Amino acid sequence: MATSSPYLSVRSLGGSDLDAAARLLGRGMADNPVHVAAYRGDDASRARRHELLVRTLLRHSPSWQIEGVDRGDVLAGVAASAPPGRCQPTVSARLRLLGRASTFGPVAASRLVSWQNAWSRHDPDAPHVHLGPVSVDRHLRGHGIGGLLLLRHVARLDATGATGYLETDRPQAIEFYERFGYVVVEAAEVIGVPCWFMRRPAA
Ligand SMILES: CC(C)(COP(=O)(O)OP(=O)(O)OC[C@H]1O[C@@H](n2cnc3c(N)ncnc32)[C@H](O)[C@@H]1OP(=O)(O)O)[C@@H](O)C(=O)NCCC(=O)NCCS
C-alpha cells in the first residue's frame, strides 16, 4: 500500500512556539563547526547551551520574523530574520545573553563573545534583512523544508526591494543559499573556523 509523506506547511511563529523553535535550533545546529568550537562538549550539551541562548534571543527580539515549517503536526524547520537596522540584539537582550553565557564558564563565554563580535564586524553598513538562525531537524534534511523557508524569505525580500545578508560556517550550505540568489561576498576564519558571509542583492 502506498504511503504519503506528512503534509508540509509554513507559518509565522510567536509566543508559545518560541521554546520549540529554540529547541529545534539548538539541536539542529549543535554540530555546526563554529558551535563545536564555541561551546565544546558533547552534542547534547552544545544543543542545550545553544537552545538557551537562542531562546533568550528570540524572546527578546520582537521585531524579528520567525517562521517555521510543520511536517504534519511536528515543527521540522525554523528560520528567523531581522529587519533592517535590527540585527544586533537590544541592550537588554545583550545583557541577558551575556548573563546566560557566563553560566557556561569564562572560556566558553569568551569564545561566544569573540564569535559574535567577529560576525558583527562583517555586517554590511547598508540596510539589509539579516537571515539566521536557520535550521531543519537533522533527520528531515534534504526534503525541501529549508527550501520552503527560503522561498518565503526571498519572496518577502523581493516584495520589499530589500537586500539580504547571512553568515554560514557550513560549506554545504553555500550552494543551498546560492540557489536563492545569495552570493559569497567575504570569507574569514572566526574562532579558528572558516565562515562565509553572503549577500543577496535587492531585486
Ligand atoms: C541548510 C539547511 C537549512 C537546508 O535545509 P533542507 O531542508 O535540508 O534543504 P532542502 O531539502 O530544501 O534542500 C536540500 C539541498 O540543500 C543542500 N544541503 C545543505 N546542507 C545539507 C544537509 N546537511 N543535508 C541535506 N542537504 C543539505 C543540499 O545540496 C540539498 O541539495 P539537493 O536538493 O540537490 O540534494 C539544513 O541542511 C540545515 O538545517 N543545516 C544545519 C544547520 C545550518 O547549517 N543552517 C544554516 C547555517 S546559516
Automatic annotation (TrEMBL):
Pfam families, per the entry: Acetyltransf_1
Annotated N-acetyltransferase domain residues: 52-203
Family annotation (Gene3D superfamilies): 3.40.630.30
PROSITE patterns the record matches: GNAT
Entries under PANTHER family matching the protein: GNAT FAMILY ACETYLTRANSFERASE, N-ACETYLTRANSFERASE DOMAIN-CONTAINING PROTEIN
Name of the protein in question: GNAT family N-acetyltransferase
Organism for this UniProt entry: Microbacterium salsuginis
